[in-house]
């Protein structure tokens, strides 16, 4: 007689079979999930040089010190703004980030935390009146560890990378608005550290060339292309004004050089008579052999080390004004003191008027000038805590006895129309 199979036994058999298949499915799903999770994470390294800092913790960051870091991204996160091809918003796309300052031994480490934002924002080819820009911003609001900021633990960190060019060109930092998985060739970066005392901002610039400070201090330092050119100039002191004017003698010789990065793109407007080249001014040295004074400036400091080139069509009587080349640097690399103080900034300005019906004598266009300039006047500005000391130079290599400084004298001398 066949064995009677109870309904309860059938149910048990199906139950155990279901549990078995469910367990296998669960394990497979977790294995796949773990594999996928590992596959979508990417770590990106970055580096730069501290330009300046502001805010309650600014004193902890030294100008010129190296910055290295990394951020880990989850590239599987979906874009919250898929309809806009130039903007990507990735909620919790950041897994963790660490920023290091090896020279001062500081480290700031933040990560994603439950209920807290860890976002990635990407903007491709943003259009402004004077520039086109690529931006990448990452933020984390859960502190993992690291250095205190003015005695307070930073609650959050944000890093913004930007690259800009003139509005007629397309920035090349980003390919599209997806999460970038490669090191960014940025123009400048901002590190924002938030605490109960407020925001501390650290402004970071990229390493320019293999000769730059700390360029080889870390294998992760990304070098930007630089096409350097050095230009000489000389002139005769015509006048000096400002708190330290008495250090400069009328008629003495002044010589100098300045170094430019001619690969920098024009950041100015579409106006064909003016161009602005941010970070194109690498450095300059000005010497006054007769008085033994020398002033040197390198890359760094305020004003983005800009070079401005201008050709104006404005006219006054017989002369056309607007052939100007100015450059500013804010990082002293050595030289003489003024009143016991080292000048913090040096700027050079070359200018010339041209005859109304003649060709331009100093500039052919608004490109970065790579040759010696046939100027009518140079103005050298040296900044100290007491203000600017301005030295005006006229063309020449030897002193001209009895030369009277004035608007008419240097125009007549340059154009050769005055009395001899």
List the defining traits of the structure above:
12-stranded antiparallel β-sheet, disordered N terminus, disordered C terminus, 420 residues
Task: Please give a structural write-up.
The chain is mostly beta strands. It has two helices and 23 strands. It has helices spanning 7-40, 407-415; strands spanning 41-54, 66-74, 87-90, 94-101, 106-111, 120-127, 132-140, 142-146, 156-165, 188-195, 198-205, 228-241, 253-261, 274-277, 281-288, 293-298, 307-310, 315-316, 319-329, 331-335, 345-355, 377-384, 387-394. Strands 12, 13, 14, 15, 16, 17, 18, 19, 20, 21, 22 and 23 form a twelve-stranded antiparallel sheet that branches. It has an eleven-stranded antiparallel sheet with strand order 3-6-7-9-10-11-1-2-4-5-8. A hairpin with a 2-residue loop joins strand 10 and strand 11 (198-205). The longest helix has 34 residues, at 7-40. The model is unreliable at 1-8, 10-16, 23-39, 209-226, 315-320 and 399-420 (pLDDT under 50).
Strand fraction: 35-45%
> Number of helical segments?
2
Radius of gyration: 30 Å
Q: What can be said about the biggest beta sheet?
A: 12 strands, antiparallel
Output mean pLDDT. 76
Low-confidence stretches: 1-8, 10-16, 23-39, 209-226, 315-320, 399-420
Distance N to C terminus? 140 Å
- The outline comes out as globular
